[in-house]
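Work Package 3 (structural annotation) set out to generate three-dimensional models for the target panel prioritized at the project kickoff. During this period the team completed the workflow that converts sequence records into discrete structure tokens, so that structures can be stored uniformly alongside our sequence database. As a representative example, we reproduce one entry of 295 residues exactly as it appears in the project archive.
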Amino acid sequence: MTSPRKRTPVSTEGRMGRADDHPGRRDREYRRRRDALAARADNHPVGAPYPGVEYTDDEHRTWRTVYDALLPKHQAHACRPVLDALADTEIPADGIPQHADITPGLTARTGFALTLAGGVVPSERFLGAMEHGYFHAVQFVRHPAAPLYTPEPDVLHDVFGHGIHLSSPRIAELYRMFGRAANRVRTDEALDILSRVYWYTLEFGLVSESGAPKAFGAALLSSYGEIGAHDGREVRELDACATASTQYRISSYQPVLFAARSFSHLEDTIGTFCAEFDDDTGRRLGLPALRRDRG
């Protein structure tokens, strides 16, 4: 059913202001809806069943706006492995799918399933679940007034980004590599380092094709404004130790990104790093404490 609140003017420019000024942070009705859906994840066991959501007409409209805007962006800016995975991904155009609609296709292709999250998940749980084929995903959708940017992951990010990734056996294996590494370590410092490498590869990674950086990471794939905006940032060649020592912020565009020379280079880099990763990595690298903006 349609929300009875007064309709807010929609911005479709994909521009980003301060996270605290985003309408999703200041709209009390929206926050109540978002928080109620997020609360479903409290004490929810990984992999346990959970109910779907009766999305409103406004929420479905937001989905359609983003869907129509992102698909041309993918064709222009996404790397070939992503485009191949997208061709095999069943993402509806007309409205928000339930997690239960997405999971069977993922499971059939790669053995992955979505499991319920309420927002940012601690690294140990989030990364560790990937070894066992579970990806934490939220059910709430971004604010309708700014459909092309959100300062936090939402259902659009999880489906348009990670859902595409997890439709590809080769990409899904990268997730499992991070999961195995996360379950092998015990210290917060090691998990922090692992989360940085994950961030700059599976969330914001680039892959070079014909000498140009193309979007690979799930956060780029779900961001209209950021997927091809490389002129205003520094793009460095992918090096796992360099990503591990680079700070990141969740609620803003990234000033530095890393590009693999090819998808095979990305696989080799993640595979080698995760296979050799242990609790002594942080001490060997001598990295500062991780600082994240969790919004």
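The radius of gyration is 18 Å.
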